[in-house]
Amino acid sequence: MKYMESILYTENLTRKFKNGSNTVTALNNVSVQIEPGKLTMLRGRSGSGKTTLINLLGALDYPTEGKIFFQGEEISKWSERKRDKLRRKKIGFIFQSVALISTMTAYENVEFELRLAGYPADKRRARAKECLEIVGLGKRMHHRPIELSGGEQQRVAIARAISHKPQIIFADEPTAELDSIMGLQIIKLFKELVEKEQITIVMTTHDPSMIEVADKVYTLEDGVVTDE
Ligand SMILES: Nc1ncnc2c1ncn2[C@@H]1O[C@H](COP(=O)(O)OP(=O)(O)O)[C@@H](O)[C@H]1O
Ligand SMILES: [Mg+2]
Question: Whose CA is nearest to atom 6 of ligand 1?
């Protein structure tokens, strides 16, 4: 595929971490292309570099060497301030442990995110409800996280991540803390978001059973892409 068709691509990405006198090469010369409107999975064993790569793609980290382009712009050169703005406007994140605000209801969690994103006040209410309906929680939006199952909490996190209409969503092992049935439901929801809402999703997983739902898979081993 040509780079021009990618929403996001990397060129020869390397990320090294220093631990005292030791240097760990978490990623070594990785080039990936993320197509818009697709579900891309990064798979690999624990320690293979998945989190390191997704953090770089999501502009949460800087590479040691190599380049990252988002919508044609080299974001790996941008200042932290500019990248922060990019993340708030165009990117949504979903993490393994859900990190909802426990004192807020599902609805309030999503509404709060919209507030942080600077979404106009008169539109927040409708948008928060709409997102909770998209993820299948229309009837439970006034429950607090403790009153929801793990899978439902992850759905709230997804509603929150899509609320400000990002162009791309990154999910780092979003199913790791769920049983396999709930995990598969979350992946199906991702697939629906990609197909119906034209969102681009990049997620990591070490679970082979998730892979067949993906539009595109990159396999990582010891910081290197071994299969695509
Ligand atoms: N902040 C860090 N400091 C030192 N080493 C790190 C850091 N983050 C990741 N690593 C190392 O980089 C490698 C890849 O880690 P990671 O990207 O978290 O893998 P995965 O998400 O596939 O489990 C591992 O060897 C890990 O120990
Ligand atoms: Mg990880």
Answer: 17
